Amino acid sequence: MDFQRFRVTPGERVLDMGCGAGRHAFELYRRGAHVVAFDLDADELAGVEKMFGAMRLAGEAPEEATARTVQGDALDMPFPDDHFDKIIASEVLEHIPDDMRAMRELLRVLKPGGHLAVTVPAWLPERICWALSEDYHTAPGGHVRIYTRAELEAKLKATGFRVRGHHHAHGLHSPYWWIKCAVGVNNDDHPLAKAYHQLLVWDIMKRPLPTRLAERVLNPLIGKSVVVYFTKPADGAQDGAGGVAAQDAGRETADAV
Q1: Is 232 in a helix, a strand, or coil?
Q2: What is the CATH number of the domain that holds 216?
Q3: What tens digit of pLDDT does each residue of 173-190 get?
Q4: Residue 172 falls within a domain, yes or no?
Q5: Nearest 10 degrees: CA dihedral of 156, 172, 218, 24?
Q6: Which domain holds residue 148?
Q7: 43 falls in which pLDDT band (50, 70, 90)?
Q8: Please, which of 39, 40, 73, 240 could form a disulfide with 157 given CB 3.0 to 4.6 Å?
Q9: What whole-number distance in Å separates Cα of residue 22 and Cα of residue 43?
Q10: 63 lies in a domain?
């Protein structure tokens, strides 16, 4: 997530839908938001709750900020209409068979004029992973589809959102997953996979200039994720209805990756 594009103001209500281990939720908390970390996995949420507590004790978030976890289903979220100022849905829609129902829920709980950021695996790196390993995408709870950016945007526009822009991220991560798919997705002890993982951890912790520059070059080409930013119209108008969305999807197919 690029927080220069997705600016979070202290005091805003922000939902991290499908928060997983909580990486984005923790950053939102540091930025002073009232954060709800939402997920179906109770074990993941228990870890997120512990980290929220540790952050409070360490003074890593402003005193007026709040953070809590909520367990539930993305298809029927337990929140009022027009409740959140901003929503992040990172690497979650590709896991949900009825993705458009989940998109309608995102629209419902977001305030008019609010902002949504969605990330999914980018088409080309994901297609290579699927070609290299069946286990990568057939495991329970795994990915059920590969989005093109055009498809993702068209579906969310059909739901009622407006597109604000996009970029790619994690260019250094794609080769790691290709290695994992080639040697076995559960083979964490393979020397090549292990060495590349150590490189990624070092890069995340140290953020040295050479790898930052390399990722900047690689992101548009093989970025593992595509990040798309949306708004919910403040005037109640909906951009995507029936044939309009279909026409948009057709026009954007050439710009799919």
Answers
A1: coil
A2: 3.40.50.150
A3: 999 999 999 999 999 999
A4: yes
A5: 40
A6: 73-249
A7: very high
A8: 240
A9: 12
A10: no
